[in-house]
Amino acid sequence: MIEPRTLKGFRDFLPNEARKRQFVIQKLKTIFEKYGFDPLETPTLEYEDILTGKYGEEGDKLMYRFRDNGDRAVAMRYDQTVPLARVVAQYRNELTFPFKRYQIQNVFRADNTQKGRFREFLQCDIDTVGTDSVLSDIEIIQLISEAFETLGFTDFSILINDRSLFDGIPKEGIITIDKLKKIGKDEVIRELQEKNIDPTLFEKLTLAESTERISTILKETTHTIFQPTLARGLDYYTELIIEVELAGYQAGSVGGGGRYDDLIGMFTHSTSTSQSEKIPAVGFAFGFDRIMDAMETLNLFPQDINSKNVLVTIFTPDQIHYSQKITHDLRNKGISAQLYLDPSAKMEKQLKFADKNNFSFAIIAGPEEVGNNTAVLKNLKFRSQETLHITELANAITVPNSITP
Is the peptide bond before 98 cis (omega within 30 degrees of 0)? Predict the structure, then answer.
């Protein structure tokens, strides 16, 4: 016997949970496309050298890497920014710039699992490539703000900073400062001293004023807060960096991003000078799983999100065709209708199935209804019913609360 089980940090999503995930994905897709971002998909596996050395020492340690059956060194997608950089470099003669894309795919990290942290998880990214204009930064943040408002969040902060404020601080110091919220100021100073980094650099950073770029963004956006100690540990960030926090949600930030003007150049070279081409870019990754967790915590999902529309029952096996006709007519009119698939089942069992699976309506047609081209439409939420001609069913189902309790 094989025990049915999933790997630690990997998950199944049964229909009720999957429906909620699709609800959030669709909300985000609608906003992404409203702002003019196009969809992009990349492979789960990349050549190892495409991904390594882009995320810092911690990222390389957490990356799933192995040799495939062709003895090639490969790695599983760690994020979607580096694959985007590879795509832009590989297809830059086919793309139109500024290139705006969104990507909604799973990423993989061999991380320690905890609340809101998994080894396979969905990322929802938006990126604008090919311009260093502050307008592209502003647009990204405006989209972030609208997305969280659309999902129902009212109290959230978009923390922003400029990585240029860290000039003069060694990379090891930036990594330590990035842990400020986890370990506190005193521990940050202690770690900096252990690494022989002058702790006054951190003190000066806490008092830094916003750069011109950050000041412009603050004037043009809402929910934004300048936080000079915001570091974000990934190596590829240049100027703007972003994190989003939700009031009342303690599991951590629910998204992050920033400007990475030098990353794509690692994959490109000018044919005339053999030097890297600088292709500026800015982007943001929504922390999908934490957003899901926060929406559950704050009760932001619609109450009827897992409700199904109509179950068409089968009164007796010899009336299958009548029930099929009703089902097809409803579907042809754009209504989600499910035919009960066991014609020998008793009506009681069929209605219990409808209740257990959150159907809003059930349709029953006995011999009398068949003879009159009618059916009984039961409103399972209000526990009421009425008999209608089959041509009237679609309208009664489409109009909310058409059957009064």
Answer: yes
